[in-house]
């Protein structure tokens, strides 16, 4: 039972998807160009928000191993 199935292109490659992508690009361009002052005014707040987010995601909970020593690259090379 070998049936010929047409491969359906993903939504983003269909005419409706391409039209949506172009509309989003044009809308994003005008949003940025017309509201640059608002975007630049939010930068200090975004920097303040980035500090705790970087602390949470970059430290990945160090010091919370509950007594299990963390292996380092030197420990792995010795084994």
Note down, in words, how this protein is organized.
It is built from 4 helices and no strands. By secondary structure, the protein is mainly α. The protein has a domain at 13-59. The N and C termini lie far apart (55 Å).
Helices and strands in order:
Layout: H1 15-34, H2 36-41, H3 43-59, H4 73-78
What's this, in brief?
This protein has helices at 15-34, 36-41, 43-59, 73-78.
Reported for the largest beta sheet, the result is: none
Q: Pairing-aware structural class of the strands and helices?
A: mainly alpha
Shape: flat
Oligomeric assembly: single chain
Head-to-tail CA distance between termini: 55 Å
The percentage of residues in β strands lies in: under 5%
Bin the helical content: 55-70%
Number of strands: 0
Enumerate how many helices there are, as a single number. Answer: 4
Q: H/E element string?
A: HHHH
- Extract low-pLDDT stretches: none
Average predicted confidence as pLDDT: 80
Radius of gyration: 25 Å
InterPro entries: DUF2933
Keywords: Membrane, Transmembrane, Transmembrane helix
Protein name: DUF2933 family protein
Transmembrane segments: 12-32, 39-58
């Amino acid at each position: 039972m070998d049936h010929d199935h047409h491969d359906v292109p993903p939504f983003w490659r269909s005419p409706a998807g391409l039209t949506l992508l172009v509309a989003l690009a044009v809308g994003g361009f005008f949003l940025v160009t017309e509201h640059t002052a608002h975007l630049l005014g939010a930068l200090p707040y975004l920097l303040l928000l980035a500090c705790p987010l970087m602390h949470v995601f970059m430290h990945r909970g160090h010091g919370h191993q509950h007594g299990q020593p963390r292996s380092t690259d030197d420990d792995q090379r010795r084994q």
